[in-house]
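All the exercises in this workshop are built on plain-text protein records. A record pairs a protein's sequence with a compact description of its fold. Backbone structure tokens are a discrete shorthand for how the chain folds in space. Once this layout is familiar, the rest of the handout is easier to follow. As an example, a complete record with its sequence and its structure tokens follows.
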Amino acid sequence: MGRERVFIVEDDEDIQELISYNLVRNSFTVKAFTKGEEFLEYLETDACDLAILDLMLPGMDGLEICKKLKKTPRTENIAVIMLTAKGEESDIITGLELGADDYIVKPFSPKVLIARIKAVLRRKEQVVELKKENVTVGEIQIVPGRYEVTVNNESVELTASEFKALHLLAGRPGWVFTRYQIVESVHGQNYPVTDRSVDVMMVSLRKKLKTAGRYIETVRGIGYRFMDK
């Protein structure tokens, strides 16, 4: 790992310099922005592997930036780390549901940040490999490369987290996954997401899949599995 391109969107110059210094020391290529609009405009002609986003920015905030990245085919595969002073559980869940790969609360340790960046990039490489395989189970078809799900040839709109969870379960019908394994697969290790949050996501996923939601089975006291036809 090394020479990956990391872009920083942070309006606090001291924090921006601290992050940049540590990234360069660890052989990353770095570019920094103070406004989300400038960052998105720059991406029209250049690309990066990972973006570090502050939430509270002048103009467009970090959540809106993340949403735009994940909804644009050209930028949807850019890994995102939220770095913010907003540490409430609701803020964290919102960021992760919008597609962020990690969420770090200020103040932070530069060494921990670098470790988390490397972990996210490793997972990104694994996801790229996984995305090569389409999954078809009954009337459900999953096209990972496009983040597309159809049921009886009708498109189903899912959040990034719901898509990853569905792909995990449907990829191995009959296998039982604990709530922790689902969270780890969707967001990586050590995420402050409760069991209740996973249950809420599964309820939403079943609802969006309509009749095909029956494939997702609850395994009492453990987690979930996809029906093995």
Remarks:
- The domain at 5-129 is CATH 3.40.50.2300 (Rossmann fold).
